Amino acid sequence: MRTSEIAKRYLDYFKAHDHMVVPSASLISPNPTTLFTIAGMVPFIPYLMGEQTAPHPRMASNQKCVRTLDIDEVGKTTRHGTFFQMLGNFSFGDYFKEEAIHYAYELLTSPQSKGGYGFDPEKLWMTTFTDDEEARSMWKNEGVDPEHIQIMGMEDNFWTTGGPGPGGPCSEIYVDRGPEFGVEGGPIADENRYIEIWDLVFENYEVDNVKSKTDLHIVGELENKNIDTGAGLERLAYLMQGKNNIYETDEVYPVIEAAEKLSGRKYGEDAAADVKFRVVADHVRSALMIMSDGVRPSNNGRGYVLRRLLRRTVQAMRVLGVNDPVLPTLFPTSKTAMEATYPELNKTFHEVSESAYGEEDAFRRTLENGIAILDVAVNKAKKSGSESVSGEDAFTLHDTYGFPIELTLEMAADQGVKVDENKFRELMAEQKSRARADALKKRHNVDLSVYDDFKKTLAKPIDFLGYTDYSSRSK
Ligand code: ATP
């Protein structure tokens, strides 16, 4: 089943259960404390917090998300993307735990011929919060094997906003990929064999004094209890399509195929190269989606995240042996794979792709200038037996060749060495204080006589001619 069909079935199911289905909000988070929309619930926060009344007490969406926190996992685990889509159903003071559990179980286990996902109940596992006996008995009522219901503590299965406000236990749903993928014993034993697909949050408490997840105070029960759920579309797709990971699903894999053609190498033959193929596929799609929501490469905030995604793509392709421009092939491939769900990508694609290609050109120039210096530094490190590029070399690469430290770190790691980051930061700090001292010196040495003359003229009374001039001009 194609990814777009899996999303459609989710939204159709919840629409049939009286949910108002709304389109995805932008990836640019409306919340000033986060750069990107990181979860399906983000656009619904005012309703969940009771600050605004929702247009309908039950809603559902397929929300575009970006999580940069997961960037180091990309390509290495089977299940983490920087961009992914989160399906979600929400209840604002309407249905609660029993219905949320029932809806999730019914959609997951109903046969595909009847509009469901057709998961084998034997492969489903649930985790529940320590104190949440209620959720455990509800899962059992649905027919879940009691041995497949595990218990997790506050750290994993209790949700808060991080501050005072709503909070509550969660219950997560996992799919067992089978004994060839890890050890027995449910998600508690192995999160790579048992893949988390859906998180149900039951917001029934008001909490305050949230020092940490495990140190908070439950004030009492909320008057309006909410349901907030999030199901990873790519994770559902990877399991339902019988693939090995999210990068091999229909909306992502075409980029791997295009990268194979560009590099003349085959995906699936070398573990280290495969990680690069998957990084490329993930990052190209993230960059495309972020740019289509209006972000452009820059040196800070969202623009910098985007810049890093584009640069990491180019760098990963170089490791795969491609030195020529890659984005003019990979960007249109990703757009074609995504346009069934996001036809609006076509509206801005010309401008978006030109900007991405320009960024690639600029980065390739940076690389051309610095790459030989980096290679020398890496060889020096290897020869000296220190296994770290010196802080001095990393500083020169930054200062003279425009290599951001993240790039030096990543490129050094590609060649199996580290970087002396402490020394690098020390040199950066020294450079900053030198620059500050220089600025001060200039301030003191500067010839201020010109200002003295200016001050003298200002000391004379000034006749304000504005009104008269204005009235004479307007006649
Ligand atoms: P994990 O522990 O596996 O990283 P999570 O606990 O961070 O997941 P939630 O924040 O509960 O995940 O998000 C809800 C759902 O969104 C998850 O059950 C999963 O299916 C999906 N999801 C979360 N992060 C990612 C990601 N980086 N890439 C793809 N899907 C994701």
Write a short abstract of this structure.
The chain is α/β, with parallel strands linked by helices and 475 residues long. The protein has helices at 3-16, 45-48, 97-109, 133-142, 154-157, 186-189, 233-240, 253-263, 271-292, 301-319, 327-338, 345-384, 391-401, 405-414, 421-445, 449-459, 466-474; strands at 20-22, 58-66, 83-92, 124-129, 149-152, 158-160, 165-176, 194-212, 215-232, 388-389, 418-419. The radius of gyration is 28 Å and the shape is globular.
Strand content: 15-25%
Roughly what is the average pLDDT, rounded to an integer? 90
Return the string of H and E elements: HEHEEHEHEHEEHEEHHHHHHEHHEHHH
- Quaternary structure of the protein: single chain
Question: How does the major sheet shape up?
Answer: 9 strands, mixed
Number of helices: 17
Sum up the overall morphology in one term: globular
Ligand catalogue: adenosine-5'-triphosphate
Radius of gyration: 28 Å
Helix content: 40-55%
Tell me the number of strands. 11
Structural class: alpha/beta
Unreliable parts: 446-451, 459-475
Distance between the termini: 75 Å
Spell out the blueprint of helices and strands.
Layout: H1 3-16, E1 20-22, H2 45-48, E2 58-66, E3 83-92, H3 97-109, E4 124-129, H4 133-142, E5 149-152, H5 154-157, E6 158-160, E7 165-176, H6 186-189, E8 194-212, E9 215-232, H7 233-240, H8 253-263, H9 271-292, H10 301-319, H11 327-338, H12 345-384, E10 388-389, H13 391-401, H14 405-414, E11 418-419, H15 421-445, H16 449-459, H17 466-474
Parallel strand pairs: 1-2, 4-5, 10-11
Antiparallel strand pairs: 2-3, 3-9, 4-7, 6-7, 7-8, 8-9
Helix pairs in contact: 3-4, 8-9, 8-11, 9-10, 9-11, 9-12, 10-12, 10-14, 11-12, 12-13, 13-15
Bound molecules: adenosine-5'-triphosphate.
Adenosine-5'-triphosphate is lined by residues 39, 67, 70, 79-81, 84, 86, 196-199, 230-232, 234-235.
Cofactor: Zn(2+)
Domain Alanyl-transfer RNA synthetases family profile: 1-475
Protein name: Alanine--tRNA ligase
